[in-house]
């Protein structure tokens, strides 16, 4: 409730709030809302309460001594509300701060019963609940989604024998070989200590300084400079467990394993110029895409694949299987598909689930075990430690998103926020309280480590078998298509152009010479740098490794336009038949579309129907779409031709090698945008309804790469 206000400086006849002061208007009336937004409890509307359950009468005004008087300490509701607000944030993750999660399930499609006793791998067709959190690494929680970065691909599978956390990335190798270097790597990529920038970027001196002094990172650098680091969607990227793990059968026999996630809709990335613009147009591009897909019932799906191998394979393999900067080419050791992961439910609450989920690499159920990969061993310490800092209590497993979904019984107790203390008298074992004495060990069912025999001096040593830093970097590079190779060259050139110290630029190029002389030359040329001497290499680069097509995105194109988005720029008077045909073709392809129009209210088509727009043209640039169609009437095209954002819509789509469908009238826009003379086979004129279907089918190729050489300054470099 409120008393009628007075003008500042005016002395009230009677002090408001003083005994006898008249309370005349409600707060809602005073705000002019007429009470519409201030629903009062009753019927289906619950009563607002404090955390203690005390009903609240007024949530609009603090308790004061008189309407214009001082606030009272007695206002418990106010104090509780503000106290809670003040404590709303928990520390963001030191890495992978920006992430997005979703629920789903893992379904086994091929049993691994002969290889592992892990319960989750026994019964074909069985579904196990799962939660996935995707993330970027370097940026803070509020950084944009399309940073050039590795993506985290962390999966928690709630198996019947405990939680299995496969905390992976979308790149199958890592920058460093030993966990002790992780803080240095991360400090180098994060904002510089003195100035606090740049945010969510690797294009700066500190990062490249560290990289140029750490040649083991060069293989990963090839991946991070490739289009893998700017995925179009979290739904269209691969995931990898990276490290070699072990699977153990009932007798404790071990098989080595590497885990792979393969997206059902295929891989797809954006290009750098597009990524930069997406970050401005929609910094939430990836999370929105995931939310929209799941909410509309188009559930993202990945196959789980395993590369299984024994000691004999490990012995003969050209690199050390414990070295996380190396992968095993699929052509040499095929990936066996054993299951699928489906994400079918968005979170109810971002904080409760995505923010509070705590992945720990050491969470493996019986039948899965670690190898001696020194990075994995270090991670097994780090994740538990980080969760205690972040979530503030050893009881973080009591939070529903982290709690196992199988029975649990132990004697761990107390601590902050304890929700599940043991019941009964005994809180220790062994004890003599019989059946009431609580849980007991189970030697048969319980977790057992692989009985590895280890010898060797206690020392800080890097194995000799980890010393080849360039051969697989070269393998990755030569396995790419020319378009992808060009993008890698462009990316390194761009990043080094932001490095201020010429000696650091030069030092990076001195490593590239060992990977591919052509690449080193392109980068040096792009920077206007003299080609330096090659870096001192611990091992010569192997040139006998066969090309691995599986490493390329473009050599493995998706099946079509399914899951992709067409942007339809529409003006008043646009051909209704054509628009409807496009929509039908998009539906048939299991894709989606968004209408962009000069006004958000939409456009009136040639037959008088009104189509609502999802985006006003300024808010819906073509970078948000996989392909675009521009349907305009003569007047509409003239209108677009005079609008700079419409011109950007067309020129960006063209520059980003997108397929462009257009009606004849749109020539006026192309003319003004300077594209009229450049239209190519990727620009498809839509005359009749049948053209609409052809256009959507053609757009399934996703990009018209032939165009790139003609629109890029660096192309001929
Ligand atoms: Fe992580 N990493 N990491 N990491 N990592 C974290 O744990 C760490 C590494 C990865 O969505 C932290 O909960 C060390 C490799 C993902 O919540 C922290 C080392 C790979 C996520 C941590 C590595 C990853 C993290 C920060 C070097 C790919 C996000 C907050 C030995 C296989 C999980 C947290 C999520 C998160 C430490 C290297 C993946 C600090 C010490 C290699 C996907 O514990």
Structure description:
This protein has helices at residues 27-31, 76-86, 182-189, 205-212, 218-224, 272-281, 285-295, 311-316, 350-355, 374-391, 471-478, 482-497, 502-515, 517-527, 576-588, 634-641, 644-655, 667-673, 689-699, 708-711; strands at 99-108, 127-136, 151-159, 162-169, 239-240, 245-248, 254-263, 301-309, 336-346, 368-370, 565-570, 592-597, 603-604, 610-611, 615-616, 627-631, 660-662, 683-685. The protein is of the alpha/beta class and 717 residues long. Mean pLDDT is 94; it is low at 1-21. The strands form three sheets. Strands 1, 2, 3, 4, 5, 6, 7, 8, 9 and 10 form a ten-stranded antiparallel β-sheet that branches. Strands 15-12-11-16-17-18 form a six-stranded parallel β-sheet, sandwiched between helices. Strands 13-14 form a two-stranded antiparallel ribbon. 41% of the residues are buried. The protein has 20 helices and 18 strands. Helix 3 runs antiparallel to helix 4 and helix 13 (502-515) packs antiparallel against helix 14 (517-527). It has three domains: 63-398, Catalase HpII,  Chain A, domain 1, CATH 2.40.180.10; 466-551, Hemocyanin, N-terminal domain; 565-716, 3-Layer(aba) Sandwich (Rossmann fold), CATH 3.40.50. The site of CIS-heme D hydroxychlorin gamma-spirolactone 17R, 18S (HDE) has 24 residues, from strand 2, strand 3, strand 4 and helix 10.
